[in-house]
Every structure is written in C-alpha cells, then in structure tokens.
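Input chain follows. Return structure tokens only.
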Amino acid sequence: MTKKLYYTDMYGKEFDASVASVGDDYIMLDKTLFYPSSGGQPNDTGILKSKNGEISIVDVKQENGEIMHITEDLKGISQGDSVHGIIDWNRRYIHMRYHTAVHIIDGVVSNDYKNGFLTGGQIYNDHARVDFSFDIIDRELITEIISKANEIVNSGLKVFEREITSKEALEIPGIARTEPGRQLIEKLPVVRIIEIENFDFQADGGTHVHNTKEVGKIEMLKIENKGKGHKRLSFRLD
C-alpha cells in the first residue's frame, strides 16, 4: 500500500520514491506527496523526474489504498526505478486554504446552530461550495455564519493533524457528522483527525493550512435554493 506522505507533511513540495508498478497510463509509487481526489478536495498535479526524463502527472486517483499517478507519457519508467516528485504547490495550497475554510464554516454551524448542519461540500481551484440543511435558513443566517467564520479565521488558531483509535473516535460526539462517515470510522483501526485548536475537530483525510489566518477572508459568491431548508453557498477566498 502506498505510504501517504501528505498525511503528516501537508506542506511537503518534493519527495523521492520508488516505482512500485506501472500501468497503461499510470504509475504507482511506494510513497507519495500527490493527493488523490477525495472527500471534496481535488487531486494534486505536478511532475515526476526519472533517469529517462520528466513526465507530467495530470490526475491522481486512489483505489484500494493504492495511489495511481495518471500521466499521458510514461517515458520508459519501469518498476523499481527511482523518481523525484514535485507537486504543483500553488494548486495544492489553494486547496488547503479552501479545505480549512470549509471546516471552519462547518465548525461554526456545529458549535452555534443546533438546528442545522452541513450536508456536503466541494473544493475547486477558484472557489468552493457548502450545502446547508436547517429547519429555516435564509441569506441573513448564512451571512451571520460567514461573519462568525471570518472571526475564527482572524483569530489565528493552530490547525494540526493527529491520529486516534477507531474506538476512541466513536466515543467522541460529532467527530463524524454523517452516517457514512461514522460507518467508515468503524472499519478503520486508526482515524486521522484534523483539529482547529479549541474550536473544532473531525475525522478527515485531506490537507490543511497550519493556521486559520492563512485561509484569508471568506467572501460569499452566491446562494442557491436546494429545496425547503436547504441552501448551497458558493464562496471564494480573498
């Protein structure tokens, strides 16, 4: 199984690895910093350098714990080769900022609004969206939530990852905020947690900034109706 370096080195930009296997259009490595599309966060892109030259990684996918680095040109790379990977840091960092922003919005709703919750989210390169479910929700309430989220951003809280056992995780209320998330935790021996100090913690497999101030200002783009009590907020970061 590929060792996921991005779990503990979220600011890593380059790494050395060995080629575990090669497919028709993909390479598997013994370890990687390349993040695969997962949990609403898009994949990394970048390059791999080998003795035979340089190839572009245009997509990254995960299957059964293995990370597939998709490329349009293998350039003679073979199993056992040593490679040097470099991720597109600008792309990764904006995804990290947006992912932490989603957690901050989620934390505000979880902490301050017991009649509502987030049902999902998606990160893009220039914006993100979150879906709200409340008994009653309108623009005024969403504006209030974003205002509180920006207060957390400006507080400069530390953001960090840690691991706990599945048993410990299941004893913590709210650590998984959807039933599928809870079911996943039940299957894992170790659960990775993203914690925002004294504010929020939840099971998560993505990458995040180290301090909430790195997120920048959260600015609303548009609000869409998704049925009674359901709204979709699109936002960007300044």
